[in-house]
UniProtKB/TrEMBL annotation:
Species the sequence originates in: Thiothrix lacustris
Keyword Transmembrane: yes
Domain of life: Bacteria
Keywords: Membrane, Transmembrane, Transmembrane helix
Name of the molecule in the record: O-antigen polymerase
């Protein structure tokens, strides 16, 4: 299938060097869309409406591509578009059918899903300006690493003023009435864009630059220990490192059955464990009291309705799930059970679409960022109970797709021309 030589431009040789202007243009663009400066979940950090502005521009970019460049999209792009469309459309519809929540509240709740589409925004605007060589991409990620690290530290120590007038405590309201939160972790764990700090260490390991990766990994570990302090995210990072180390040696003979086996085994394994805990009224060992309450409510509802999709309720509509089940429930925070409740049996085709998108990119490009993207996908399934890997982390997934395209096709560590006259290989 034909590839767009401007929308999806890829370097033709490993000798390409972008100008400093082009590198900084890419750094600034990726930093803005990455979520680093988005309004945080507790509204204490970030710029109000920046996320919504990026979503609006991304939708315009998709409209432009579909109207003028549709014939230049390949199979991975179509799988990706269908997945994003379903992730955005299905929950509001089923929340309306099950809970009579007006559609506008549902679409507002699911707007973050549309951040997947920033892939088209970047590629349709500056992604095709220049070819970016390996040195350029490493420099871009290095700049982004230190920008994100400095920004996060400055926020953690209140060197950047907090937003005032519209902040609230995300942590306290997750618990029952009268609960006094004793969690003294930095509030910055609610900041968006934490994944941006991981990209540079991921890339160095994928390239085999282990000595060069020592200092960035130590800084990343320090960031996770003292700034982010999110245990699930820390576990995900560790597993991604392991998979990158494995995949970089098997990029040319990776068995597709592994890509299917890992998700199936872990999803079925976790689901069997949850069924056991629900049937006998036990607690899941890696959930706290409130998460266990959420699990039993959501899994019970999913079983009672034979895995029909339920969608998700917005806090803006009648206090969300509190008005239905008597407790606050954050479907995204409960991971796999939340996905099963939200999408029901449709979770299977949605997960398949994500797997196919990653597989097609990995099998075609076989480059460092496709390795990272594959490692992230496998790690997400392995920690599926700890977060919504379909509806969260959208910016990271989209930016990795951009970087896969920018780096181009890798055959035995030598980049070759990907665009022939009129058609692409």
């Amino acid at each position: 299938m034909q590839h767009n030589t401007t929308l999806l431009k890829m370097p033709q040789t490993n000798g390409i060097m972008a100008s400093m202007y082009d590198k900084w243009l890419m750094v600034i663009s990726l930093a803005i869309v990455s979520g680093l400066f988005f309004l945080s979940d507790d509204h204490r950090f970030g710029l109000a409406f920046l996320r919504e502005a990026i979503i609006g521009l991304s939708l315009l970019a998709v409209a432009y591509v579909l109207m003028l460049k549709k014939d230049q999209l390949d199979s991975a792009d179509w799988y990706f578009l269908v997945m994003v469309g379903l992730l955005f459309m299905l929950p509001p519809i089923f929340a309306y059918l099950n809970f009579h929540q007006p559609l506008q509240y549902g679409f507002l709740e699911e707007r973050r899903t549309l951040l997947y589409l920033l892939y088209f925004l970047i590629m349709a605007t500056i992604g095709g300006r220049k070819g970016y060589g390996d040195g350029d991409l490493e420099a871009i990620l290095k700049y982004l690493f230190y920008i994100a690290l400095i920004w996060s530290v400055a926020n953690a120590f209140a060197l950047i003023p907090r937003n005032s007038g519209f902040s609230f405590s995300v942590h306290a309201e997750q618990f029952t009435e009268g609960f006094i939160a004793t969690d003294d972790r930095f509030e910055t764990r609610f900041m968006e864009g934490g994944f941006l700090i991981t990209l540079y260490p991921y890339y160095l390991i994928a390239r085999g630059y282990f000595l060069k990766a020592v200092v960035p990994i130590l800084l990343l570990a320090t960031y996770m220990l003292y700034i982010n302090q999110t245990r699930g995210f820390g576990l995900l990072i560790a597993i991604v490192f392991i998979w990158i180390t494995i995949l970089r040696h098997r990029v040319n003979n990776f068995n597709i059955s592994v890509l299917l086996l890992i998700p199936v085994v872990f999803v079925l394994g976790y689901f069997a464990y949850f069924l056991y805990a629900h049937a006998f009224g036990d607690s899941v060992i890696f959930y706290d009291y409130h998460r266990n309450r959420e699990l039993h409510v959501l899994l019970g509802e999913a079983l009672r309705d034979f895995f029909m999709p339920h969608g998700a309720l917005s806090l803006q509509f009648n206090e969300g799930f509190r008005s239905v089940y008597g407790i606050n429930i954050y479907v995204s925070d409960i991971g796999l059970t939340g996905l099963i409740f939200k999408y029901g049996i449709l979770f299977i085709p949605l997960a398949f679409l994500m797997i196919m998108t990653v597989y097609l990119l990995f099998s075609k490009y076989k480059n460092d960022f496709s390795i990272i993207l594959m490692a992230l996908l496998l790690a997400n399934f392995m920690v599926a109970p700890l977060g919504d890997f379909l509806g969260r982390g959208t910016e990271g997934f989209a930016l990795l797709m951009v970087l896969v395209r920018l780096q181009g096709v890798n055959h035995e560590h030598k980049y070759i021309a990907c665009v022939r006259r009129g058609r692409a290989s």
